[in-house]
Amino acid sequence: MLFSKTLSLVASAVAVCASTIPASVQARGSISVTPHDRYSSSAGVLGCKIDTNRVAYWPSNVDCNHLCVKVSAKGRSVHLLKVDTSGGAHDISYDAWNYLVTGKSARDAPTMGGGIDATWENAPLSDCAHLIKEPKGRLALSAANGMNFFGTCGNTKTALYNIANPVCTRGYDEVCTLAAGANQATCPHTLGSLNALTSQPVWNIDYGTGKLSLAV
User: Fold this and answer.
1) Mean pLDDT of residues grouped by 10 in the chain (216 residues)?
2) CATH class for the domain made up of 29-130
């Protein structure tokens, strides 16, 4: 009896400890995922260089070692780039949420609703390679606003662009370089320029309608 009670206490302690481990260091778990229809990135990831219909907006910090996650629900799965931090919800791109719910794109069969039960697990970045649209397959960051995240990743996985905001409406579509020991990138044009940029549009899929709207 005492042995059984001890085992029960140990199991309870393990469960409590597991529940307090931040999602950024867990390998998998259960969550409720909700739809998010406006692209953003707290890490300065440029939406014009990724598939913004496959993004995770989660309460954990953006981690260069865990950029790719697999989310499964209702017998379907999607791979997502975890490039933004939410205030508490486990949001995912509206199109990805719609696919998990209906098996169809939000463009073709938009639906509405709230959280759905799902499971998630960390996945190798190679599983999300198809979501990265940068010409050399690197995660494109704003040279003016993504330096903190760049410093945790190094230049093997990422590239710095002279685009000032995540929705790519300001700056220049050009790659910048970072000299050894420097803390500021060098770009062909002035770093952080607010020049109007129209050649790299980011499109949102509007919640409930499936219509495209230009991100601003």
Assistant:
1) 38 38 65 98 96 96 92 98 94 98 98 97 96 96 92 81 98 95 94 97 98 97
2) mainly beta
